[in-house]
């Protein structure tokens, strides 16, 4: 399992996840807001299970010498 979520992507996922969970907790968006756990976890772990299926990665490519 290689890291496939890079810098800005991680920050956005964590921010969106926390925002959705907070809004669900405050009953702004309802129970569906707890889906924010998914972007929060993928941002914290640095791996998104959908990215390999789509063949994308937001991590910078490391060149091997």
What does this structure look like?
The chain crosses the membrane at residues 12-35, 41-61. Pfam families: YgaP-like_TM. Keywords: Membrane, Transmembrane, Transmembrane helix. InterPro entries: YgaP-like_TM (IPR021309). By secondary structure, this protein is mainly alpha-helical. It has one domain (7-52). It is built from 3 helices and no strands. The protein is elongated. The two termini are 22 Å apart.
Number of helices: 3
For the residues shown, what is the average pLDDT?
A: 91
Low-confidence stretches: none
Structural class of the secondary elements?
Answer: mainly alpha
* Proportion of beta-strand residues: under 5%
In angstroms, what is the radius of gyration?
14 Å
Domain Inner membrane protein YgaP-like transmembrane: 1-61
Pfam family, one: YgaP-like_TM
Organism: Candidatus Propionivibrio dominans
InterPro entries: YgaP-like_TM (IPR021309)
Topology:
Blueprint: H1 7-25, H2 37-45, H3 50-54
Helix pairs in contact: 1-2
Short description:
The chain has 65 residues and is an all-alpha fold.
Q: Notable features of this structure?
A:
65 residues, mainly alpha, 51% helix, transmembrane, DUF2892 domain-containing protein, YgaP-like_TM, transmembrane helix, membrane
